[in-house]
Amino acid sequence: MMPAIYGSSYEIVQAPNAVAIVYEMVHETRVIPLDGAAHAGTAIRTYMGDPRGRWDGDTLVVETTNFKEEIAYRNATSTLKLIERFKPIADGLEWSVTVDDPATWTRPWTFAMVLTKKGASQRPFEYACHEGNYGLRNILSAARAEEAAQARSKTK
User: Fold this and answer.
1) Which site among 57, 77, 152, 153 is 20 to 30 Å from 95 CA-CA?
2) Does this model's pTM top 0.90?
3) How far apart are CA 50 and CA 5, in angstroms?
4) What Cα–Cα distance (Å) separates residue 133 from each residue in 18, 94, 120, 126, 127?
5) Closest to 2 measured CA to CA, from 60, 104, 106, 74
6) Are the CB atoms for 76 and 67 separated by under 8 Å?
7) pLDDT tens digits for 101-113?
């Protein structure tokens, strides 16, 4: 959920026994069970980890473990554990994350940011090319301009 160059929209949906977070980037959906079940065994690892959630008053607390080492979040190892807190505030949610990996850092560290609630117009886009996505056109346009400039410099 860290901000990226684009695709930083999320949609959070709550059901009785789970919370789901739909990410615009790569169109992933993270399902967070709230049923009190234990984490999967350490032999089962995924790129988004194995989340387990619980309520602490009005704050959703999510502990995620069992990450694949290939995620290499700031050189973390397979012992990486994230504890997220989603706390309601006036204009959205305060999202804080405590990062803990004793094989990488001397102590856990925490960062936080506000996730601002937007209207329906800010829902995640499908992660695909669409009429409003000018990224590829702009990338190609810049590459053609660079090629033209190189060609002009060779003829001088």
Assistant:
1) 77
2) no
3) 26
4) 32, 29, 18, 11, 10
5) 74
6) yes
7) 999 999 999 999 9
Say what the alpha-carbon torsion angle 44, 49, 52, 58 is, to the nearest 10 degrees. 180
Q: What is the number of residues in the chain?
A: 156
Q: What is the CA radius of gyration of the chain?
A: 20
Integer CA distances (angstroms), 32 to 102, 111, 134, 144, 150, in order:
24, 21, 33, 45, 51
pLDDT of residue 76: 86
Residue 12: both structure tokens together: 């959070």
Strands 29-33 and 92-100, sheet pairing: unpaired
pLDDT per residue as tens digits for the range 23-78: 877 778 899 999 999 999 999 999 889 999 999 999 999 999 999 888 767 788 88
Instruction: Supply 53's token pair.
Output: 């959630």
CA-CA-CA-CA torsion for 82, 87, 93, 96, nearest 10 degrees?
-30
Closest to 77 (Cα-Cα) out of 63, 66, 90: 66
Buried b (16+ CB within 10 A) or exposed e, 61-81: ebbbbbbeeeeeeeebeeebb
Chain mean pLDDT for the chain: 88
